[in-house]
Write a structure and sequence with these properties.
Blueprint: E1 14-19, H1 28-33, E2 36-38, E3 44-46, E4 74-79, H2 99-116, E5 125-127, H3 131-135, H4 157-173
Parallel strand pairs: 1-4, 1-5, 2-4
Antiparallel strand pairs: 2-3
Helix pairs in contact: 2-4
Bound molecules: zinc ion (ZN).
Zinc ion binds near residues 18 and 144.
């Protein structure tokens, strides 16, 4: 699904999944901050920074700044969704995260895991909403993936992250 020329040689430790808090389309603003974006219909869009710019041991100029103090060695994968949403009470807004983009994001993450030899764990494939808990790196508390609008039984960062990891691991096993 992810073209091989989007995945240059790089030393990568993890993939961090986000939502953009924008519409279902990838804007140029969004494309500056992430390596790969998934639009509302599941279409992948390449961000502007190269994954190689975020390579260990030190990010280079022009790297994708997607996670506070955790960009080196981290791929930023983001689902274009959630503009106009509200956390409490929960309102999905006009651009809710869709099941097709969630599925496309796990397919993309499986491709990235295979290419960069990342094994799936809570420290290596995680959402931005899990970074503070799973990696111990303080974040600003901006609301990120902690509910799935298409399946609201998943309403914590951990539950969403566990579901994503299970889906990525299943797809990776078939690659
Ligand atoms: Zn984020």
């Amino acid at each position: 699904m992810i073209p091989s020329d989007w995945m240059p040689d790089a030393a990568i430790a993890r993939i961090i999944l986000h939502w953009t808090a924008g519409s279902h389309k990838a804007t140029d603003f969004d494309r500056k901050h992430y390596h790969v974006l998934i639009e509302g219909d599941g279409k992948p869009v390449k961000g502007f920074p190269s994954i190689a710019a975020n390579s260990l041991p030190r990010a280079k100029s022009g790297y994708a700044a997607h996670t506070l103090n955790c960009n080196t060695g981290s791929i930023g994968l983001s689902m274009c969704a959630m503009a106009g949403s509200n956390e409490r009470p929960f309102k999905p807004g006009s651009y809710p995260l869709t099941k097709s983009q969630w599925d496309a994001a796990s397919t993309a993450a499986a491709d990235l895991c295979k290419r960069y030899k990342i094994s799936v764990s809570p420290k290596t494939v995680l959402s931005h909403a899990e970074v503070q808990a799973n990696l111990g790196i303080r974040q600003r508390g901006k609301w990120d993936i902690a509910i799935l609008p298409f399946d609201t039984a998943f309403d914590t960062a951990r539950e969403c992250g566990d579901r994503f990891r299970a889906e990525v691991a299943a797809k990776l096993a078939r690659l």
